[in-house]
């Protein structure tokens, strides 16, 4: 449940400007959280103090009622400072948007009010050891059984991003019986029967605490089954919710690449080998490389901003197009950072500098749903007039 917290600060600057300021602040401790690894609890204290946990909650619930364009900008700027924080925040925004569009109105209000008044975040627990990501099909092994007072959930989830701080776990499960339904069951964090196994020890996004979660007969009330349907009824997805998913994930990795860009430009401007007698920035080869990075990231900025604005205006991208944008932005973010690493040599790979961390973090963009092969197959089938699966 929401933890008590002082009211958000008086609005004297826009949420986007606050995010840019916090991103600079979070960058100061990002390396330490990566090395430990440790979860950045203090960052979420600051996000709550600045009112950013309720960015896209309605104003009547205490939120800012901001749309996807502002959410993309906030996530981008937080990710420049500490990307694991940005990823947890992005998932929270996605679920506030989902609740507003497809969950009972009482839940959208409850989640919005809690986010506006305390450190209350929500994320999904969907991926499983045997199933993998549900986006590739199949029923989850996690089962929801009817009880006299509601539901009892049992299962094993992996990659539960942000689990140390989540107030709400949106658990993907199927119901018992010959005609199972599948969907989202809301479990309050700290409910008896939840075990967190601290298994997360990855190359990148190390501070995200994306640990395993074991659910053993976790009891929840009946109304916590917020959206359960026949499996076939989950397709096609809501294009607006899908745009929130794809664009916010892409914004995390765009932000990482922007941080790498800043390091690389400073490196070129200050590195002056004795045999050159001038900074590397004076050489056409490095000017061209800087221009290559600028081109990739300027295109990313334009893609994210225009697609988010379209969604805010009621014209979200098609499902395949949202997938293409996520693929393009993350691929170009990775390419930009790779260029910086390649041309900076040993200094860029030193653990004393942040570029090697940016490189480890940015390559994680490939693993988020929709993954590259799924996007390309869906796009190709659509072009060939075949039935296109959801990317």
UniProtKB/TrEMBL annotation:
One of its GO terms (molecular function) is flavin adenine dinucleotide binding. It holds the Pfam family Acyl-CoA_dh_N. It comes from the Bacteria. The keyword Zinc does not apply. Residues 248-369 form the Acyl-CoA dehydrogenase C-terminal domain. This is Acyl-CoA dehydrogenase. Residues 128-218 form the Acyl-CoA oxidase/dehydrogenase middle domain. Residues 24-93 form the Acyl-CoA dehydrogenase/oxidase N-terminal domain.
